[in-house]
Amino acid sequence: MNHMLVRIATLLISLLLTAGIVILDTIPFELSITNIQTGQALASAQYGDKSMVIPMEKLEAILETAENNFSDVQTLKAKLIQEKNISLFSEPVISEGFFLFKNPDKIRLEFTTPFKSALFVNKDQFYRFEEIKGEWKAMSSGDKKITRIMLDHMAAWVKGRFNKDGLYRISGKYLFGNKPENPAAIILILEPKAVEFREFIRAFELGINADINRLEHITIRESEQDFTHIEFYDEQINMPIENNLFAPGKQGPVPVLW
After folding, report:
1. Confidence at residue 156, expressed as pLDDT on a 0 to 100 scale
2. Long-range CB pairs of 101-104, under 8 A, 24+ apart, other chains included
3. DSSP 18
4. Which helix (H) or strand (E) holds 62?
5. CB of 172 closer than 8 Å to CB of 59
6. Are the CB atoms for 216 and 207 separated by under 8 Å?
7. Terminus-to-terminus CA distance in the chain, angstroms?
8. Which of 6, 58, 72, 208 has the highest local Cβ count within 10 Å?
9. Rounded to an integer, what distance in angstroms lies between the CA atom of residue 196 and that of residue 215?
10. CATH of the domain spanning 2-246
């Protein structure tokens, strides 16, 4: 089990955290990052540094409310901005893309700039593509069993089930904006229980709106200095999504229209 957790953590890092810089197969030679207000800076400007730890009894109620509110999500289509902070780099790496989900077992995670990569899950089928020299190329899908477990957890988060299989210790904090009497947002902190898992990922921080019906952002703490922040926007919930968008076409990923 411990070996499996390590492999899940490794996949989370490779598939979610660095996908925007063409993971595993190619290395970017030049990155131009100017005038970008990242999700972390935006959150700081919106909420400031005022926060308060959520008492356990209230946290349990929040988790129950989130699962009830999120359970109605049948499809989700959202754009995203990923800010990857790596201690070796002087500036964060910014990537943009989108996320598609169709209940119960279809997921597409695609990065469109500055490099293109795509991950598909369609029932028991798993595909990974990267654009190389202007053409989409199918890449090795790796260990499908472990990847399936990891993606099941992603799908569970979309549905508000934040502690699937009891892998995490959960705590939380309120963030306050201009009205200190009312929380402006909630941060759920998921810390892996297994030591082997924590060697790769120290914690997931899930940002939820005050109405507890929207996952606004995810921060993945890999170490004290390295972290990844993913901000979601332009969400479309329970709108029709064609099944063909969750499997590659003859020329690679089928384009998604917005």
Report:
1. 83
2. 101/73, 101/75, 101/76, 101/77, 101/155, 101/158, 102/74, 102/75, 102/241, 102/243, 102/246, 103/73, 103/74, 103/75, 103/155, 103/159, 104/155
3. S
4. helix 56-70
5. yes
6. yes
7. 41
8. 208
9. 27
10. 2.50.20.10
Tokens matching residue 110: 């695609």
- Strand-strand pairing, 93-102 and 215-221: unpaired
Q: What is the pLDDT of residue 212?
A: 93
Distance CA 61, CA 55 (A): 10
Question: Tokens standing for 128?
Answer: 């990974």
Q: Which amino acid is at 213?
A: N
Tokens read off for 193: 């229980």
**Tens-place pLDDT, residues 169-199:** 999 999 987 776 778 899 999 998 988 888 8
**Domain locations in the chain?**
2-246
Rg, C-alpha atoms of the chain: 18
Query: Which residue type occupies 13?
Result: I
Q: Residue 249 — very low, low, confident or very high, per pLDDT cuts 50/70/90?
A: confident
H-helix or E-strand containing 118? strand 117-122
The pair of three-digit structure tokens given for residue 219, joined into one six-digit string: 């921060």
Give the bridge partners for 203, in sequence order.
221
Lowest mean pLDDT among 71-80, 152-161, 231-240: 152-161
Residue 250 CB-density burial (10 A; 0-12 exposed, 13-18 middle, 19+ buried): exposed
Assign 172 to helix, strand or coil. strand
